[in-house]
Amino acid sequence: MNTRIGKQNGTATARKTTENQRNLAKTTSDNLSRAMHGEAFAYVKYLLYADHARKGGNKELADLFEKTANTERFEHFAEEAQLVGLVGNDADNLKDAINGESYEVDTMYLEFAEKAKIAGDAAAADRFEEIRHDEIGHRDAFKIALAKLES
């Protein structure tokens, strides 16, 4: 099992990404994407549960949540990511990150904030807007890194 996603040579990884995507049926690729989203969410959720259990003095439960979280991330997610060819070369990874952050800034969090405000959920609207501003910083940092990489 190779869980060293992202530590591979950029060119070899990019080549493997294209090869994997060509060999996977669309349904399989879609299912891998859905599975990775589920594994990523479980990873973060279980870490939050572990933190809560630890703060409550339940170290054994916290350790169980952390162990399970690490399996979700470092085995399940990593293996699925490798199959779908998630990681490419540094420039491609930065471009993908910029696209993702741009979507969050220009569409997702903007719409979420507007809809929460209309629904009267002011705290959620404020949180979405705050996160949106964080995402602007992430996007811009990735753009700077890409420009530096390409110069």
Protein traits:
Ferritin; 0% strand; 151 residues; 5 helices; 85% helix; mainly alpha; globular; single chain; disordered N terminus
Textual characterization of the structure:
The protein has 151 residues and is an all-alpha fold. It has 2 domains: 1-87; 89-151, Ferritin. Helices cover 85% and strands 0% of the residues. Helix 2 (26-55) packs antiparallel against helix 3 (59-84) and helix 4 (90-118) packs antiparallel against helix 5. The protein is globular, with a radius of gyration of 18 Å.
In round numbers, the mean pLDDT is 89
Q: Give helix % range.
A: over 70%
**Which class do the helix and strand fractions yield?**
mainly alpha
Outline: globular
How many β-strands, per DSSP?
Answer: 0
Largest β-sheet summary = none
Radius of gyration: 18 Å
- What number of structural domains do the residues give? 2
Poorly predicted residue ranges: 1-18
State the end-to-end distance. 36 Å
Give the number of helices.
5
Estimated share of beta-strand residues: under 5%
SSE series: HHHHH
Write the layout of secondary structure elements.
Blueprint: H1 10-23, H2 26-55, H3 59-84, H4 90-118, H5 122-150
Helix pairs in contact: 2-3, 4-5
Sum this structure up briefly.
This protein is an all-alpha fold and 151 residues long.
